[in-house]
Amino acid sequence: MSEWIRAGLDCLLIAIVLYGIFQMSKLIRHLMGLRQGRIEMERFVHEFNATVIRAEAGVKGLRQAARDSGDDLEKLVEKATLVRDELQLILPSADQIAERLSQLASSSAALTKAAATAPKAVSESQATPTPSPIPTAMPLNDAPSSRAEKELLQALKKLS
Description:
There is one protein chain. By secondary structure, the chain is mainly α. About 80% of the residues lie in helices and about 0% in strands. The protein has two helices and no strands.
């Protein structure tokens, strides 16, 4: 009987060793999978790190572009504000000058009409050339008060 016990214990020991070998092979496969996963994870971390670095560079570039365009926009707004203020100053003067020019044009038209309808009293041999009823330099009642009025008058004098 002792041989049976020894043979049974040997078989039990062989079964335990086989089971251990089976478990060890499963464990080795899991460890190989973990090692492969770790390699893939390292590759992923490196790629992710490179992507983050590119994203940070892109964000820095966007911030710089936003600052630059904001500065440009601020300069444009300042210029537009200056132009708007200057136009607000010029507008009343331009309205006054336009009103004066309108009055002068209507009086000039009236003078032309009166000259055309008046009989000629002087014979043609004694006649001296008469000046044109339309003045070449338009006299204004008031002297220009602003720089814009002066510039506009100078431009009008150059045109006539």
